[in-house]
Amino acid sequence: MPKNGKPKGGRPSRNFEPRYAKKTSFHDRHAGGRPGAGRPDRDNRDERTDAGDRGFSSDRSRTSDRGFDRRPGSKSPSTGSGQAGQRPGSRSPSHRGYRPAEADGGAPKRRWTDQERAGRDEARGIRGRAASGRREAPHHRDERSQDSRGSYGERPRYGNDRATGDRRYEDRPRRDERGGERPRFQGDRPRFHSDRSESPRYNDDRSGDRRSFNNDRNDRGGDRRSFNNDRNDRGGDRRSSGRDDRPARDDRRSFNDRNERGGDRRSFNRDARPARDDRPARDGRPFTNDRNERPRHNEDRPRFDRDERPARDDRRPFTRDDRTRRDDRPRFDRDDRPRRDDRGATDRARRDDRAQLPSRDDWNKQAPARFEPTEDVVHERLEAQVVAAPEVEGTTFADLGLGSNIVETLKNMGATAPFPIQGATIPSILEGRDVLGRGRTGSGKTIAFGAPLVESILTSQAGKRREIGRAPRAIILAPTRELALQIDRTVQPIARSVGLFTTQIYGGVPQGRQVGALKKGVDIVIGTPGRVEDLINQGKLDLSDCRIAVLDEADHMCELGFVEPVQRILRHTQEGSQKLLFSATLDREVAALVDEFLVDPAVYEVAGEDQDSSTIDHRVLVIDHRDKAEILTSMVDRDGKTLVFARTRAYAEMLAEQFEDAGIPAVSLHGDLNQAKRTRNLQKMTSGRVNVLVATDVAARGIHVDDIDLVIQADAPDEYKTYMHRAGRTGRAGRSGRVVTLITRQRQRRMNELLERAEIDAPFEPARLGDDVIEELAGRMPSDADLTA
DNA sequence: AAAAAAT
C-alpha cells in the first residue's frame, strides 16, 4: 500500500484542488469511489510523524493516474473530473466542454501539452527536484507560470467558466444531458475546471478567454478595491466620529483603569472621546490635526446622519449627541452591530461602537450596497494584571513550578529563562486558574501555555499513564492549520520529555492517521475547530476527560464563523475544565467565551510590550494604483526574506505568479491551495529555498518564519488587529524588521485611523516607480532613513 | 475577504 512507487511529489496536487475540484460523493461513486481521491495531501504525510494512511495515498495515486490517462480522450461518464479517472466517454457526453476534448482527445496533449501538464504540480514536483536550477528565470518562470496558471486560472475560470460555460453551452447540457444528467453535470463542473487546468481542450477558446478573463478579474479586483477604498475612505471621513476610537486608545492605555472607569470611563471617555466626536469642541486635540479634513466632514455628517438616521437607530444619535449615549453603548452596539453579529455578544465591551456608528450611517447613506468590511473596532481592553519584565528577572522555569524534564527540554529549545509573559502565566496555569494572556507577537506565548499545560497533565495523571485508548486530557485550538502544526512543534517535544503524546487534528488531510493516533491514545490534541468538531461528532474524539482547553489567537477564534464551533467544542470538554486564552491582541471580543466558560480568570499582559518598544519600522507608501504591480515586483526583488500580504487568495496567487514571471522565485500561501501545497510552500520559505512568500491572512497570525525582515502589505488591512498581526511576522525575538504598506491616496485617512488604533507611528510617503524610497525600503539602497541599516 | 470539515 505504500505509495505506489510514486514519488511523494508525484501526485500533483492542483493548486486549488480542494476547493475547485470538489468532489462529491457522487463523484466518488462514479469514479470508483475512492475516498480521498480528491485529496491531495500526500506531502503531508511526509511531515507527519506518523505514517500516513498509505491506503489513501495509493488510492490517490491511482486515481490521479487515471485522471491523467483519462484526460486525453477520455470521456468519463460522471464528471469530467480528472481524478475520477473516468476513461473515455463519460466526460465528453456530460460535459459541454466535451467536444473540444474529443477533438483534443485524439492527441492526448493539446495546447497544454507537456508543459501545461508539467505545469501541474506533478510535473512540477518532479522538475523541481530534477532541476534545482529553478532559479533560472526563464525556466523557472515557465514552470511556475504554468503551474500557477493552471491552478490559478482555475478559479477564475471557474467562475468564468461557469458563466460563460453555461451560456455557451447551455445547449450542450441538454445534449449531454440527454438524460437528466444535469445533476451530474453540475457536479462535473467543478472537476471540469480542474480538468481544464489539465486539459488542453478548452484551452484555446477558453484559455484565451479565461486568461483574459482572469485578467479582467484581476483588474476588477483592483478596481473593486479601489472602489472599496473610496468607500472606505468616505466611511472614514464620516466616521471621523468613528474615530472616537482614539479615545478608545486612551482607554486602552489606561486599560487598567477600566475597572475604575466602569462608569467613569464613559464619562472619561466622553471627555476624551467626545473630543473626537465633537471635535469642534475639542479642537485642541492633536488627533484632529491628523484628520484635518475629517473633522469637518464628520461633524457635519454625523449630525446629518442623526437627523436622517433617527429612523434607523436612535443609538447613533445618542452617541453623537452626548457621551451619555456612550452609556447607552450597549444597545448601541447591538443595534448597530447587528451586522457584526459576532460581536453581538461582546457588544458591551466595545467602546468604540458609537464612534463607528456614525461612520456607518454615513456609509449606509452613501453606499446603500454596504458590502464593505465590518468596522474596525477597538474593543475594551481586558482588565489585566500588568507584569513588569523586571519581575521575572532572575526567575527560572523551575522556579515557576515546571519539572526538571520540561525545564531541560525548554533549555534545549533555546528557552533558558522565562519571558515576562511566561513568568506571569505559568504559575497561574499550574494553580489551575483560567488565564487570559496577552503578549506581543513573538513574545513566547506558545511556551507560556504549552509548558505548564504539560506539567499540569503530567501531575494530574500520575499513575495512569499511557493507557491505550485514553481520552485526551488537553486540547489546544488554533485558527489555521499551519499554526496548529507550529504549536505542535513546540509542545510535542515538551510533552514527549515527560512521556506524554500529542497529535494534530486538522482538516485538509485524511482522517485515518489522526483517528489512529486517537485510538492509540494521546494526551494532548492540537488542532483546528473544523476537524476537531468533525471527529467529535463522529465519535472518534472524546473530550470528556479534557481538563485543559487552550485557545491560541483567542480573539480571532471569537470572531463570527469561528466562535460557534469553538463554543461547541469547549462544551464537550470536562465540566469545569481549565481554559486558557492567548493572543497578542486579546480584548473584550472574547467576552462571549469568557462569560460562558471562564471562572474568575487571571489576566496578564506585559508592561512595555507595546508597539512603541517594537523593533519594527513601519512605513506607508502612497502610490498610484497603476504602479502597484511594478512597485511590488521591484520591492520583492531583494536579498532578505519578504512576506507579502494580499487580501484575497486570487490576488495572492496572481502576485506570486507575477513575481515568478519577473524571475523572482516566489510561492503563495492561501486557502485555495491544498494542504500539501500549503505546507510545502511554507516550508520553502522557511528553508530559504525561496525568499518571497505571498499570502492571505492565513499567514497573518502566529506563523513564525525566521528572518523575515520585510513585510509588504500589497493590500492594506481592514482591521488594526490584522495590521498588528501581519507586522508581527517580522521583528521577532528582538530582531529588526520593516513593514511597508501600499495604499492609494484615497486610502490615506482610513490608514491613518487604523494606525492610530494600533498605536503605531508610520510616516506616509508618496512613491512612484523608480523612486529612491522604493530602493531604500527594499534594502537595495541603504539610506539615513533606513533605520535598520 | 479569509479561515475552518467533508463529501
From TrEMBL:
Identify a single GO molecular function assigned to this protein.
hydrolase activity
Record has Hydrolase as a keyword: yes
Q: Per the database record, which ranges form the Helicase C-terminal domain?
A: 615-775
Q: Which CDD domains match?
A: DEADc, SF2_C_DEAD
Give start-end positions of Basic and acidic residues composition bias.
14-31, 39-72, 111-125, 133-364
InterPro entries attached here?
A: DEAD/DEAH_box_helicase_dom, DEAD/DEAH_RhlB, DEAD_box_RNA_helicase, Helicase_ATP-bd, Helicase_C-like, P-loop_NTPase, RNA_helicase_DEAD_Q_motif
Question: Nucleotide-binding: is it a keyword of this entry?
Answer: yes
Question: What Pfam families would the database entry show?
Answer: DEAD, Helicase_C
Q: Where is this region: Disordered?
A: 1-367
Span(s) of short sequence motif Q motif: 395-423
Which positions fall inside the Helicase ATP-binding domain? 426-604
Q: Where in this chain does the record put each DEAD-box RNA helicase Q domain?
A: 395-423
Query: Which regions are flagged for Basic residues bias?
Result: 1-11
State the GO CC annotations: cytosol
| Keywords for the protein's UniProt record, in alphabetical order | ATP-binding, Helicase, Hydrolase, Nucleotide-binding
Give the record's family classification: Belongs to the DEAD box helicase family.
Q: What is this protein called?
A: DEAD/DEAH box helicase
Q: Which species is the source of this protein?
A: Microbacterium tenebrionis
